[in-house]
């Protein structure tokens, strides 16, 4: 046998890509402590915390308007499933966290969708999960956006979906100029 045949099977690693945006980044440099462009390994049993307190948080945001611990991400596997997920929990008592359009108050948590926008204050973070197989660790890959994410990306989950039984002409008419109608018609 060759060394190639005897080598361990390479497993893929789940990677959480996060793209950060804040309108004042140029002046205030609140992302200066984040390591953009490099993948970082995190043990599967660790909780990745984001916030201002460098003693507690793995990812520091240098802004006095950010809570000492703003939010946390935890990697986990659901019972009787081979799939891996991330859970996001709001740890700020002062600021609500929005994941897509779901608002999380203090200590509220939800599963992180495979692609979503996380917002708090003026911060916008596009989170995209790249699936993998590793059970020992996951990776984060941070990016910096130059333009607002909410204008840059169009996520299907953020588009209004008409309810069943509602005529599509109602939705089409909202894009036409207003017309005057006699109330007797």
TrEMBL record:
Location, primary (coarse class): cytoplasm
Name of the protein in its database record: TRAF-interacting protein with FHA domain-containing protein A
Signal peptide start-end: none
Gene: Tifa
Similarity comment: Belongs to the TIFA family.
Pfam families for the chain: FHA
Keyword set, alphabetical order: Cytoplasm, Immunity, Innate immunity
Domain FHA: residue ranges: 49-121
GO cellular component, as recorded: cytoplasm
Compartmental location: Cytoplasm
Organism from which the protein derives: Scytalopus superciliaris
GO biological process: innate immune response; positive regulation of canonical NF-kappaB signal transduction
UniProt keyword Cytoplasm, yes or no: yes
């Amino acid at each position: 046998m060759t060394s190639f045949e005897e080598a361990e099977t390479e497993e893929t690693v789940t990677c959480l890509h996060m793209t950060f945006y804040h309108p004042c980044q140029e002046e205030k440099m609140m992302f200066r402590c984040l390591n953009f462009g490099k993948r970082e390994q995190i043990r599967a049993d660790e909780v990745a915390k984001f916030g201002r307190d460098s003693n507690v948080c793995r990812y520091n945001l240098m802004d006095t308007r950010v809570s000492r611990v703003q939010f946390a991400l935890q990697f986990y596997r659901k019972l009787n499933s081979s799939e891996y997920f991330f859970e996001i929990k709001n740890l700020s008592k002062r600021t609500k966290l929005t994941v897509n359009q779901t608002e999380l108050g203090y200590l509220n948590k939800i599963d992180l969708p495979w692609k979503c926008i996380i917002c708090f204050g003026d911060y916008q973070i596009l989170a995209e999960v790249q699936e993998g197989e590793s059970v020992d660790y996951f990776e984060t890959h941070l990016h910096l956006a130059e333009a607002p994410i909410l204008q840059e990306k169009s996520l299907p989950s953020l588009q209004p979906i008409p309810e069943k039984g509602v005529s599509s002409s109602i939705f089409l008419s909202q894009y036409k100029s207003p017309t005057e109608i006699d109330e007797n018609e």
